[in-house]
Write a structure and sequence with these properties.
Layout: H1 10-21, H2 25-30, H3 32-49, H4 51-57, E1 92-96, E2 108-113, E3 118-124, H5 129-141, H6 143-150, H7 153-158, E4 160-162, H8 180-183, E5 188-194, H9 196-199, H10 204-213, H11 216-225
Antiparallel strand pairs: 1-2, 2-3, 3-5, 4-5
Helix pairs in contact: 5-6, 6-11
Length: about 230
């Protein structure tokens, strides 16, 4: 069982800190084996080992430990339309999606590791117009259910909700609705800070699972709003 060992180390954070200071192809090429041994391989192993605990939260969310096209985000930035042409991301991250995420917008669980900026994330970030309408309609149809999900004690104790919101009420919704601030949201996300000691602990896989589990009512509401099985 890989769950009872530390996947991540201080070397991961040291590498990412060094990369932030040397974000160029020459430096990365010279340090690629270091990246693979302290960032890529540990993350892929974590993704594989997280499959079992994730199933205890929901059997419909999946892990994919492939090095390309799987749960782990690529280290390479897409700079085609970016003002910042730095070629590499200075964080390590993985996203655990719903089994039908390729068919329809779906909330997910997210792990982000970076020096002094590590966190667990849940929800839907920048969903499209159809997904936003589905969530807003679900809130209008079941306001008490949304209040219970968004105000759940487990979520509130561990997470901070965030994201962007419209300045004006969305078209087609009552501006006087008691949940208008939630209906104005453009993102339905929450994040929980993780310190480096916690990330490097031998039981981090289970700790991360507990953190994800704390967001169950929130994730369950969003998942069902998308017409998906929880």
């Amino acid at each position: 069982m890989g769950r009872n060992k530390a996947h991540f180390s201080r070397e991961l954070f040291e590498f990412l800190g060094d990369l932030a200071l040397n974000n160029n192809r020459e430096w990365f090429k010279a340090n690629k084996s270091r990246y693979e041994s302290v960032v890529r391989d540990p993350m892929l192993e974590f993704v594989a080992d997280f499959a079992e605990p994730l199933r205890t939260i929901s059997s419909h969310f999946v892990t994919d430990p492939r090095p390309t096209g799987g749960s782990m985000f690529r280290i390479y930035r897409d700079v085609r339309f970016a003002k910042d042409k730095s070629p590499y991301k200075t964080m390590a991250a993985a996203h655990f999606s719903h089994e039908r995420a390729k068919e329809v917008a779906a909330p997910g669980f997210y792990l982000h590791l970076a020096p002094a900026e590590s966190f667990a994330g849940v929800g839907l970030w920048h969903p499209g117009a159809t997904a936003l309408k589905n969530i807003r309609d679900a809130i209008v149809a079941d306001p008490d259910g949304w209040r219970r999900a968004a105000g759940d004690a487990g979520l509130s104790a561990r997470y901070e909700q965030g994201g962007d919101s419209l300045k004006r009420p969305p078209r087609g919704y009552d501006p006087e609705h008691p949940l208008i601030d939630d209906l104005k949201r453009k993102d339905f996300i929450a994040s929980a800070y993780l310190d480096e000691e916690e990330v490097c602990a031998a039981d981090f896989t289970d700790r991360f699972a507990d953190t994800c589990r704390a967001a169950t009512p929130f994730m369950q509401f969003l998942t069902k709003a998308m017409g998906l099985s929880w």
